[in-house]
Amino acid sequence: MPDYSWPPMEKRRVIGKPTRRLDGGLKASGKAKYASDFTQKDLLFGALLTSPHAHARVTSIDTSAAEKLPGVTALRVIATPGTEVMWTGQEIAAVSANTEEIAKDATRKIKVEYEVMPHLVREEDLAKAGARVKAAGEQTKGDPDKAFQEAEVVSEGSYGIPVITHCCLESHGQAIGWKGDHVEFFPSTQNVSGIGGDLSNTLKIPPTNVHVHMDNVGGGFGSKFASDRWGIEAAQLSKQSGGRPVKLFLDRASELLIGGNRPSGFAKVKVAAKKDGTITAWDSTSWSTGGVGGGGAPPIPYVFDIPNQRKSHSAVSTNCGGARAWRAPNHQQACYLTLTAIEDLAAKLKMDPVEVLYKNADLTQRAEVYRAQLRQGQELIDWKKLWHERGDSGSGTVKRGLGVALHTWGGGGHNSQCRTNIHPDGTVEVELGSQDLGTGTRTIITMVAAETLGLPLGAITLKIGDNALPPSGPSGGSTTVGGVSSSTRKSTVNALAKLFEAVAPSLGAPADQLEAVDGRIQVQGNSSKSLTWKAACQKLGVAKISEMGENNQRNPGGLNSSGVGGVQMADVSVDTETGIVRINKIVAVQDIGLVINPKTAESQIHGACIMGICAALMEERVMDQQTGRMLNPDMEFYKLAGIGDVGEIIAHLDMTPEHDKRGVVGLGEPPAISLITAIANATANAIGVRVPDVPLTPDRVLAALERRNA
Amino acid sequence: MSSKKDPDNPKKPRPAFSRRSFIQGVGVGTGALGSGLLETVAHTAPTDGKFAGPGVVPITLRINGKPINLSVEPRVTLIDALRNSLDSTGAKKVCDRATCGACTVIMDGKVVYSCTVLAIDAQGKDIQTIEGISQNGKLHPVSVAFVNNDAQQCGYCTPGFVMAVKGFLDKHPHPTMDDVEKGLGGNLCRCGTYVGVRKAALEAAKEMRGGRNA
């Protein structure tokens, strides 16, 4: 079997070198095309009518006025009379028309009568949720009763982390049209190879009749895998309009209502410890909602496998749009509910929380990694100089504090196939049905191919974003980089072996003694016996080389692996008169295995930290129990951080031989997990009291200060 | 240079800073009053007392120096006219309510949110879009700086951000980091590319002061 292993660190020419993203120029000049940019002469525009009620039954629907509107080409009723609508924003009808304005006018002319039914849209008070609560039962481990009796210190607290939305800047949607019994599908998706099969099942056509193409996606974060109701309806509208393509993207309000969200997490927690900081017991009652279906239990206590535990979780069914995977599903919640409680325990012990985490690292699966990262983080944020005991932050009105949290993630590579074609004229094509979410996937695939083939990046033509290409997994769970780098490595090694066979006679050496270096094929270590790449490819005659490579997620062969740890720290200032929390500095220390492109890897960490700042300080889906509606379904009041809100961010990549030998590990999720908690802990450290629920909005901070002073 | 069409209120400090510095002043998030403030920047006074429509009306827009004739309903915004009628899809429609800046274009030298400008009101103005700032296939220094500093991920906010940076630097060629943070407070990114954008803005300022493509 050929040797697919990564070249040794010191021999790499391309991998590990900070490299500008290859599609950067297209994006920064507005030329990069997204599904929502799709245009065609006969393009139609689609629009959805959605429910204004959180829970209701449709009693009648009259579409006659809408259908008569000039320019309307098709109209579909989704919620027929008798349908029970379960959340605000649920799809009622869909329209296609010659212009976007007419399509929207038409939805306004549809008359729907509802019988309004009782709803529940808020879950933070479990006592008010009544019959909508579904308890998952109690789990115990060890002997929690005995451990709490024997505990030297017990800390108790309540903590909450709300539902937030994905708020992708390119909303969910697609352009879609028919050519005979074939569908041309241009979705905004994280799942180029898989989304066509999903659609074909619903449309009852063979999967091979759906052609999917996507060059770029304007954000997904876990919410864009399926063809969705709007994809199916757009396909049907197109069919009813003679196959003309229909572009239907959610408007901003719908994007926030039904485009996906992260489940909430609430808990009452008790943690016990010895006086020296050794954690001995955990007790939690937790609940969450992810919409009508309830919500999954976050894995608490997070990272620390505390020897004695009692925990019970309840799922609350609410009349809200459904949850979707949100960058590191369940981990942000689990991290928040656990590491806030441990920070409060440390404060009660009057210990430095870094030392509490350090001391208990043996309860984790990667004690040495975390211990090293805690020390590294301390150094980078100047912890020893700046940290103080909780609340001991001077006499001014602006208080400064530090906080820490840590996280873990998998990130092994998904199934991926790659094809490499080497043509007699020397051109090289690398083909995968993958997608670049903005993580830099195009760039890292090209880097791997260039490394293997001894060519410059510009000599590789990469084709991704089409389901006619060899299939690659969906981009979720940080699985892409491991999958596509491994399949590309194997495919290019296989293709190069064929090229060696073709040129071996001319170089008078066996194929297995050739190497590809600096645009030449040469006898190993002997540059005098060589051919240029182009001359070597001419030896192929008229036949191109076309070789596959595959990553099997169950057997990655050492090219990629799973399982990382990371530590994040925050330095914040809190104005105790206004309640505003400001970020001074963030430090993110991340273990990520072999790093292909440090430049885009750093950007991933910076971005993940900024998302953490948004979720810690601003982001929240605010539901109104009176009306059942979301109060902030826009970007004015669904707040994201701006460029002046993020402070200094330091991303530290653990690029060591020891980590490198584990192969490639995904990076999308891990740095997006623990910063929310670190910021909340820093705020408690600054103001001397826990603000139980994030986001740390001024009202919540001021309320906590008032409770402290009462 | 000011003219009768320039609605700048002399009481307002530093026009190009107005909405952004205000938004920054609000502190957390992008501010409840952002859109209200924008109107003073983007809105043009009615000209001749006539009204247009209903129905499609012919208009002429001067985009990147070229007059372009098109027919749109009077209610159509500039972003929709660009994207739906002119196949000029660099500017993106994201919030559609003058909050996020993805639709940013430069109109008569001012950075505006094209989702909150009516296409008919944009007649007679010089409209510069992302497509117009590259010259002879050569990227504008702001775009180059975005690539150099990896100031983009999914890239959907990027064209608007590039235009906002260009408009900002045109008026503030010697910005500090603090100026950059204030001046660019009117654009939002979901992937979190601000670290790169800050660096890119400072690098582009330096490059543009060098005189090339300024």
Helix and strand topology:
The complex is a heterodimer of chains A (about 700) and B (about 210).
Chain A: H1 24-28, E1 44-50, E2 56-62, H2 64-68, E3 72-77, E4 84-85, E5 91-97, H3 100-108, E6 111-116, E7 133-141, H4 144-150, E8 153-161, E9 164-165, E10 173-179, E11 182-187, H5 195-203, E12 210-212, H6 228-240, E13 246-249, H7 252-258, E14 261-262, E15 265-273, E16 279-288, E17 308-316, H8 331-349, H9 353-359, H10 367-381, H11 383-386, E18 398-409, E19 416-422, E20 428-431, H12 441-453, E21 460-463, H13 480-507, E22 514-517, E23 520-523, E24 526-532, H14 533-538, E25 545-551, E26 564-575, E27 581-590, H15 598-617, E28 648-653, H16 657-660, H17 675-687, H18 698-709
Chain B: H1 18-26, H2 34-42, E1 57-63, E2 66-72, H3 78-85, E3 104-107, E4 110-113, E5 126-128, H4 141-148, H5 158-171, H6 177-183, H7 194-209
Parallel strand pairs in B: 1-5
Antiparallel strand pairs in B: 1-2, 3-4, 3-5
Helix pairs in contact in B: 1-2, 4-7, 5-7
Relevant terms:
heterodimer; A: 710 residues; alpha+beta; Aldehyde Oxidoreductase, domain 4; Aldehyde Oxidoreductase, domain 3; 3 domains; five-stranded mixed beta sheet; 26% strand; B: 214 residues; Ubiquitin-like (UB roll); DNA polymerase, domain 1; 2 domains; 7 helices; elongated; disordered N terminus
Structure description:
The complex is a heterodimer of chains A (710) and B (214). Chain A has 18 helices and 28 strands. By secondary structure, chain A is of the alpha+beta class. Chain A has three domains: 9-32 and 417-551, Aldehyde oxidase/xanthine dehydrogenase, molybdopterin binding domain (Aldehyde Oxidoreductase, domain 4, 2-Layer Sandwich); 35-117 and 172-249, Aldehyde Oxidoreductase, domain 3 (Alpha-Beta Complex), CATH 3.90.1170.50; 261-411 and 562-709, 2-Layer Sandwich (Aldehyde Oxidoreductase, domain 4). Chain A has a seven-stranded mixed beta sheet, with helices on both faces. A five-stranded mixed beta sheet of chain A has the order 7-17-16-15-8, with helices on both faces. In chain A, helix 8 packs parallel to helix 17 (675-687), helix 12 runs parallel beside helix 13 and helix 15 crosses helix 17. The N and C termini of chain A lie far apart (73 Å). The relative contact order of chain A is 0.13. Chain B is of the alpha+beta class and 214 residues long. Chain B has a five-stranded mixed beta sheet with strand order 2-1-5-3-4, with helices on both faces. Mean pLDDT of chain B is 83; it is low at 1-46. Classes of the chains: A alpha+beta (710), B alpha+beta (214). Chains A and B meet through helix 1 and helix 15 of A and helix 3, helix 4, helix 5, helix 6 and helix 7 of B.
